[in-house]
C-alpha cells in the first residue's frame, strides 16, 4: 500500500508551490518534506516532482496526486470517530470554473451548501472550454464545462445555458456601427475580449455575419468588472452575459448589436465518478441553483 | 538583418496560441506560418518554438519576441507616411497588472489616454509580486509591480500605495472573533484568499499578531467580485482594498479586524527603457491618475 504520509508531502509542495510553505502546513521541517518526496520517488522508481520554481508534478506525479485527492475527499466523509486527530482539517473542494459563472450565478447557487457543511472552496478560474483539462489532470474534483461529454472516469450533467449578447454603449454604436452590425464595422471597431482563449464574439459574429473578421482591434481585459466598464463607458463592444447586460439594455445604457443572435453557452457539471456524498450534494445544490439562475433549454445539444 | 516577416509568424503563433489563428491573422496559409518559423530556426540554428499545445517559445524564442515587440512599438510611432500599408494595425500595449489594480483604479487612470490615442490594451493579470517576471521575459512593455527596483533595461517609478484592510461581516466577527483578532481565531476562521500567490493576509497577520498561523482554513476565490461577496455575505474574512471596503466599513456592513494595522502595498510602474513617446505618455497618465486614486506616501520604501 502507498505511504500516504509521503504523498501528503508531494501534495503540499504542489499545492503551496513552495517547500517552506509545505513544511509549515505539515508541521515538519523543510528537509523532512524533501526527504519524503525523495523516498516516494525511490520506492516508485520514478521522478514525481520537477524541482522548478514553482515545483510542478511530472505526469506520474500528477496521476498520484489525482489519486491522493480522491482518497482525501473520501476520507473526509468517514465518521469523525474513525479519523486520527491530525486529519481533522476542513474538506477543501478544488473546482474548475469559468470567470463569468463565478461573477454571475455560481456563488448564489452554492451558498446553501456552505450553510449546511463546514467546507472550503478552492476555485481555479479558466475558460469554460479548458476547465475540463483541470479535471482530466486531476487538479479539481469537478468543473463547469462547455462540453457535454465527460472525460473517462467522470460523470456529467446539464446545468443550464448562459446567454451572451453583443453589447455597446449608444455613443459607440453610433460612431462605429452607423449602419448596424456588418463584418467590416466589426473588424474596425475596438472589441473587448476577455483573453486569448475566449472565442465567444467570434462564434457570435460567425452566426450573425456569416463569418468572423480575419483581424480584430482587440482590447484583452481579463477582469469581469473592467471588461464590462470598458463597454459601458463606450470604448469597446463585446459579449456580456444576459444576467449582467439585461438591466443596462432595459435602461438604455447599452444597445444590443445582434438582438436576434444571442450566443448560448451550455454549461455542464463534470465530476469524478466517486461514491462521495459531498460531491453528490454539491452536484444537486448546483443543479437546483442553476434551474433558477440559468436559462433551461429543453433539448441542449449533445 | 533579421527577417521580420519570419519573426511576425513566430509572434502570431505565440500570441494566438494556435497555428490556424496565426495564419488567419497574417492572411497567409497555415503551412506558410510553419515554414516561416522553420526558416527562422534554420537561419539562427536554434529551436525557437516548442510545438506543444499551446505552442510556447524557447528561451531563445522569447528573447527574439521581446526584441520584436520593442521594434513593433517603435515602428508604430513612425509617421503614417513611412509605413507600408499592411502595418497600419492599431498599437496594442501589452501590460502586466494585478487584479486589484484592474478592479479599482487602473481603468479610471488610463481612460484619458484612450481619449487621445487610438490604441488597444492587452492586459495580463498576475499578482503584483509576479507581474515583473512578465516584463523581464518581454511579454509586456510595462507592468505594475510591488518592487521598486526595475529589471535590467527597464525604468521604474513610484505610483502610490494601495491600502488593504482585514475585513469581516459583523455576524462573522461575532462568531469567529468574539475576543478580537487573535492568532488562534485567525487560524480557525475561514479566510478568503485570492490565489496561492496572494500573501497579503499572511503579512498583515504577521504584523498584527507577531506571526501568521501555520495552517489556514482557506477559500481560494480568484475573482475580485466573488471574493468580496464571500466576505460581505459572512462566510469568510479577508483583505479588501480601502477603495472597496471604506463605504462598507462606514455603513456597518463590514468590520475592520485590524484597524491599527492596515497593510500597505506600494505600487511601481516598470517599463522598458525605450525612447517611445507613447510609453512615456502612458507612464505620465498613470502617474497623474495614481496621484488622485492611490495613497501618496512621502517616503515609500526603496
Automatic annotation (TrEMBL), chains A, B:
Give this protein's Gene Ontology molecular function annotations: DNA binding; DNA-binding transcription factor activity
User: In this record, what's one Pfam family?
Assistant: HTH_1
List residues of the HTH lysR-type domain. Answer: 2-58
Q: Which UniProt keywords apply?
A: DNA-binding, Transcription, Transcription regulation
Organism domain of life? Bacteria
Classification via InterPro entries:
ArgP, LTTR, LysR_HTH_N, LysR_subst-bd, WH-like_DNA-bd_sf, WH_DNA-bd_sf
Its family?
Answer: Belongs to the LysR transcriptional regulatory family.
Q: What protein does this entry describe?
A: HTH lysR-type domain-containing protein
Naturally occurring in which organism (per UniProt):
Geothermobacter hydrogeniphilus
